[in-house]
Design a protein that fits this description.
alpha/beta; L-arginine/glycine Amidinotransferase, Chain A; 4-stranded mixed β-sheet
Length: about 350
Amino acid sequence: MNDTLRFPAEWESQSAILIAWPHADTDWADRLGDVEDTYIALVAAITRFQPVVIIVADDDLEAYADARLRSNRIDTDRVRFVTAQYDDTWLRDSGPITLKRAEGGFRLLDFRFTGWGGKFDASLDDQLVGVLHAAGLFNNAELQSIPFALEGGGIETDGAGTLLTTWQCLHERHPDRSRESLSADLATWLAQDRVLWLDHGYLEGDDTDAHIDTLARFASTDSIVYQACDDAGDSHYAELQAMGAELAALRTTDGQPYRLFPLPWAQPVIDEGRRLAASYANYLILNGAVLMPAYGDAADEAARAVLAQAYPDREIVPVPCRSLIWQNGSLHCITMQLPAGLLA
């Protein structure tokens, strides 16, 4: 790895979780009440363990969100608001990717956010990292703007120099680039020793082009949690079985196979004729806890048991996320962790 920079794993100590409050000018407008309930449950869960920073569009939205949280008896001493303009609330993809310096301090990587390859307008979201940096939200952090489309949900690190990603997503964003050249640039920008690629795995209803955080996640430097499918009649079966085989063939830096934790498969969620992407792999790691997306499915409890095995030192806390998958994302997609020491 880079001698002075390191991309920390999500399970390392955090100062806060960053989210953006949904409002009527975001894509949540048609189901805003349901989504607000999910955000309230999310903030309630986060503040049990650590602070949360909530981006709001203006003072009125801050007052409204604060009132909703207080009326639900949430510890608002652990809530901090910051004002910025945003197109939508997918902070995993528009928020800062943070590297730590060995000598202290941070580097915020501000990649281009293109609305997942131009599918949606993202002009405000593309500016968000710079706006938050200029507002003084971060402590001892330099900003590096990189003219390359990359979303935080498309990459997964073990904190020790290994990056996991999917070829489908990166190739879709950069069709003229080879795997070798992409690996070299990602390793340089993200201070990694190696890049592991998955060629299989997708979810219907996912418009990110197979983000890794819906499919497979590091639980430690030698273990991976992944979304499995055991229903041979399901349209995902062949792809997720092939992805499972790819993961089984990967090796740690000392040549050992990874310990694998397959997550159960939820029953199809159909909304207005379309399949929604209900992945249990889209969980969020906190200080002392893992927040698990729950879908009101019989598999919820089985998913909780798998995560308890993969993270034995953390409390597993379900958060109702059925409203989120209506917009093709889930719990991890709407959050971004801020490493310990980063929050000013």
